[in-house]
């Protein structure tokens, strides 16, 4: 048996950290998945905390505080569907939709060259300065390479992309929850 163990090499059933492989595998946590519940079905989004840790933390915090409950889809194009503006609860403010947020800006711009705007990518929306991203996010219905490098991608749709395809402006987001978490 070798005494020198390099990163990524397992010897005699013992992982690098000195733990049995079974325990190391159990400690490895899966990426969080959020579920966007709509009248047209559910969309499951796997968040990518290694790629955008602050953005994922921000969205998870809002989800856990039921921020998105009752919001509406406020922007739909051939390429994307966008949500997350609390002003969408008020139909009389429709001309202002897309300008609101939680009031707590992200403050960082997380770009990872590995994350591309392909179908199913989920990114943080902002107006003007990328550090001003807040509660709004979008789901890519079609690839759009022109957005790569300009917006932070926080995850990807793993189930329900056809639901995103059918969403229209004013459709209600019943709630967004963390999959597997106890309801609040």
3D architecture notes:
It contains three helices and eight strands, in the order αββαβββββαβ. It is α+β, with helices and mostly antiparallel strands. It folds into two domains: 1-30, no CATH class; 31-178, Cyclophilin. It has an eight-stranded antiparallel β-sheet with strand order 3-4-6-5-7-2-1-8. The radius of gyration is 19 Å and the shape is globular.
What is the H-and-E element order? HEEHEEEEEHE
Enter the CATH topology name of the largest domain: Cyclophilin
User: Quick one: CATH class of the largest domain?
Assistant: Mainly Beta
Question: Helix/strand-derived class?
Answer: alpha+beta
Number of strands: 8
Oligomer: single chain
Biggest β-sheet: strands ordered side by side in the sheet: 3-4-6-5-7-2-1-8
Low-confidence sequence ranges? 1-27
- What number of domains? 2
Classify the beta-strand content into a percent band: 15-25%
Mean pLDDT: 87
Shape: globular
Please estimate the helix content: 10-25%
Number of alpha- plus pi-helical segments: 3
CATH superfamily of the largest domain: Cyclophilin-like
What is the name of the CATH architecture of the largest domain?
Answer: Beta Barrel
């Amino acid at each position: 048996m070798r005494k020198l163990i390099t990163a990524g090499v397992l010897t005699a059933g013992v992982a690098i950290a000195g733990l049995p492989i079974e325990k190391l595998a159990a400690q490895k946590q899966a990426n969080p998945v959020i579920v966007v519940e709509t009248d047209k079905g559910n969309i499951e989004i796997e968040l990518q905390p290694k790629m955008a840790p602050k953005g994922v933390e921000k969205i998870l915090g809002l989800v856990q505080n039921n921020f998105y409950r009752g919001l509406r889809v406020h922007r739909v194009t051939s390429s994307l569907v966008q949500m997350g503006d609390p002003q969408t609860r008020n139909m009389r403010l429709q001309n202002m939709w897309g300008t609101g947020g939680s009031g707590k800006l992200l403050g960082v711009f997380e770009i990872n060259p590995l994350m591309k705007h392909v179908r199913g990518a989920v990114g943080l929306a902002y107006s003007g300065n990328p550090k001003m991203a807040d509660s709004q996010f979008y789901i890519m219905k079609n690839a759009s390479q022109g957005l790569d490098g300009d917006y932070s991608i926080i995850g990807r749709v793993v189930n329900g992309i056809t639901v995103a395809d059918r969403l229209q402006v004013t459709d209600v987001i019943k709630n967004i929850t963390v999959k597997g978490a106890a309801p609040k």
